[in-house]
Design goal:
This protein has 81 residues and is mainly β. The protein has strands at 2-6, 14-21, 26-31, 35-37, 43-52, 60-67, 72-79. The protein has no helices and 7 strands.
Length: 81
């Protein structure tokens, strides 16, 4: 899954790093692993790949939180069978 985000902060250049809160049997891979905004790149895309070590028998909830030194953006997700 590919997602696009826009930097609406007043800083022209900033780097957001992710923190993933996922269920114990789910691996979440993010590419790239940091979002580096510049005054020329206000929109950036990242790819999310979910892998489960077992079959999903119920809804699983988690989130990806991107943060820099000033702002935090939380993106919740739900995985279903």
């Amino acid at each position: 899954m590919i997602r696009t985000v826009t930097n609406v902060g007043e800083e022209d250049e900033t780097v957001y790093s992710p923190t993933v809160d996922a269920p114990s049997n789910v691996t979440v891979k993010l590419t790239p692993d940091k979002l580096k905004f510049t005054k020329y790149s206000k929109k950036l895309s990242y790819e999310v790949i979910f892998s489960a070590s077992t079959s999903l028998k119920k809804h699983l909830f988690g989130s990806i939180t991107w943060s820099n030194h000033k702002y935090t953006v939380r993106i919740p997700f739900v995985l279903t069978k």
